[in-house]
Amino acid sequence: MLRFADEAHPHHVDLPVDVATEKVAVVGVSGSGKTTLAAVLVEEVHEAGGRVVVLDTQGEWWSLRAGRDGQEGLPFVIFGGEKADVPIDAGMGKKLGTVLVESSVSAVVDASRIPARARGAFFTALLTELYEGNRRPLFLVVDEADLFAPQKPSRAGAQELLDVMVDVVRRGRKFGFGAMLITQRPAAVAKEVLSQAETLFVTRLAGEHDQGAIDRWLGTHVPRTEREAVLATLATLPTGEVWGVSP
């Protein structure tokens, strides 16, 4: 089981390990606790023996190596970014994808030092190589998912990146993929990607359009009374409190 709190906690939650082969969405505004929640899920998947690859555009996920609350960090390899074990550049997407397919390591791919205009092509090459080559269980964590699967792909290379993301979330399970999509703006994530989530975690979320995206997801998965209970509290959820919906 994947444990989100000690059994003594009044709201402790356990999830089956199989969630690492499914699609999970974690959404909420900055500072609401969604990144902490996502990090706990990554830690639990890793501790259960799962292989994890985190795609990071902000240079934040290297902190998995630092640990929390005085605990020892996770033995992830950091590719790229300020804390890199292995430096990377914009032309290394395909090569890095091959390395991740052929190795058994868990890793953070930190593209924060790759120019924004080049990240689309970099991640498209990396994900294409992973999708075509991976045949073992792999939990793929996509932070800022609205950049990888935009509802309106207007930037150079955005459509190509969206296309491979659709393949990963729709068809990746038969190749061993699970995925966690993390975003502050669910309304900005392509519907054909967000709709594939089988489990949804929502922290505080105030925007009308973003709440609308959650309403649409809930409307296809849970009864109306449960949907209304979630929506009524989203704008005022205290930091660290979360709705978890797993139909």
What labels describe this entry?
alpha/beta; two-stranded antiparallel sheet; 8-stranded mixed sheet; 10 strands; 16% strand; 247 residues
Summary, kept brief:
The protein has 247 residues and is of the alpha/beta class.
What this model shows, in words?
It contains eight helices and ten strands. 34% of the residues lie in helices and 16% in strands. Strand 5 (77-79), helix 2 (93-102) and strand 6 form a beta-alpha-beta unit. It has helices at residues 34-47, 93-102, 116-133, 145-148, 158-171, 191-194, 208-219, 224-231, and strands at residues 2-3, 14-15, 23-27, 52-56, 77-79, 107-110, 138-142, 177-183, 199-202, 243-245. The two termini are 18 Å apart. An eight-stranded mixed beta sheet has the order 5-6-4-7-8-3-9-10. A two-stranded antiparallel sheet has the order 1-2. It is globular. Helix 2 packs parallel to helix 3 (116-133) and helix 3 runs parallel beside helix 5 (158-171). By secondary structure, the protein is an alpha/beta fold. The longest helix has 18 residues, at 116-133.
List the helices and strands and how they pair.
Layout: E1 2-3, E2 14-15, E3 23-27, H1 34-47, E4 52-56, E5 77-79, H2 93-102, E6 107-110, H3 116-133, E7 138-142, H4 145-148, H5 158-171, E8 177-183, H6 191-194, E9 199-202, H7 208-219, H8 224-231, E10 243-245
Parallel strand pairs: 3-8, 3-9, 4-6, 4-7, 5-6, 7-8
Antiparallel strand pairs: 1-2, 9-10
Helix pairs in contact: 2-3, 3-5
